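Reopening this ticket.

The earlier resolution said the output was attached, but the attachment link was broken on my side. Pasting everything inline this time so it's all in one place.
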Amino acid sequence: IMETTIAAISTAMSESGIGIIRVSGPEALDIVSRIYRSKGGKKDINKVPTHTIHYGYVYDGEELIDEVLVMVMRAPRTFTGEDTVEIDCHGGVYAMRRVLETVLKNGAKTASPGEFTKRAFLNGKMDLSQAEAVMDVIQAKNEYALKSSMEQLRGSVQKAIRDIRKDLIYHIAYIESALDDPEHISLDGYSQELLEIVEKAQEEIAHLLKTASDGKMIKEGIRTVILGKPNAGKSSLLNVLVGENRAIVTDIEGTTRDILEEYINLHGISLRMIDTAGIRETEDVVEKIGVNRARDMAKEADLILYVVDSSRPLDENDEEIISMLDSRKAIVLYNKTDLEPKVDMKALKERVNRPVISVSAKEETGIRELEKEIKNMFFSGEISFNDEVYITNARHKEALMEAAESLRLVKNSIEMDMPEDFFSIDLMNAYESLGRIIGESVGEDLVNEIFSKFCMGK
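Inline output:
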């Protein structure tokens, strides 16, 4: 695969000022030199210095295709580690396609999704955790997701994993050497020394796993379900938070019958907002399905926003919702504060034992307090990337859990005074599980699976 030269459009296929066609591989310079002509017609791309930009035209035979800038980057100082040329043409969809067709006609192959980044990984320009972070940067939905992905791209996960693996491989090698040469390398008293190393690795892995729930919410958004009885103001609240009329609002109870989902951004934190049907007993078949879906969504929520209609007394529907809050993170929104209250706010706070915020979806008040409470509830008021590594990838979490289990077995073997070769087997399993995160012990199928999820041109 590394002997072929690949090309693809690396910018969005839409009308824009500039479009970029990327060419990478051993024949990149030769291919572009056949289609590029400088303004004076004398410049040979094959002979220009690396990391320089040149103005000219792309020709298909004698047909002028577009006016371009050509950026030449020679291996190994490139993203892929190969000779790479980027052609900056006009951003029209047809113009980009014609330039790409000309490149392909002269010897390049169409790049698969993620193939440029895959080559960067195979050429040792980045590890697998950094390669996955490339796609996370592209898909980042908020400030914190972008910061987390950029830290991983800079190697934060790689460094944490390599530090743990370095200690493990040293002790694996020590045990193997001692077993092969017991006359010169003694294992007397070694179990206690190894126990300290294992416990240290367990602590470090446990810390990384502890960040996984926050990492998932940073990356995917906090799964937030809005609950309340009919006409409590749930859909009005969603519209205020989204900033447009996405949900239908009427005075008729049971207007919302299905799940409505929207992403919103609150000062860098993404909320995956889910508006639900009002909780109540109903004979309407369609509405009943919506109510049951609301109950199911509440069980899977990271956060429940319980909207209370302060202008109506609490009833059996409110009591059911309060029971659904048990053991879940929830914020109670004391809504319709522009009307005469029929629910005592202090008594409500004692009843639900949750933060209660006074809001008015109609007058759009209390939203800032809600944002602050969510941030405090999930991230202790702030998210810092100075020293913290956040695990945002499910594959990484799974590998860490496997490594933790292997280290638990090592610790058990030490405590049971088992032979040293038992230590070595489980230590190696932990070492290889961690290696899967950075790509040092993964098969070709997994590599292909990971990069197949990338966008075209990256």
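Reporter confirms the inline version is readable. Confidence is low (pLDDT under 50) at residues 246-257. The two ends are 16 Å apart (CA to CA).
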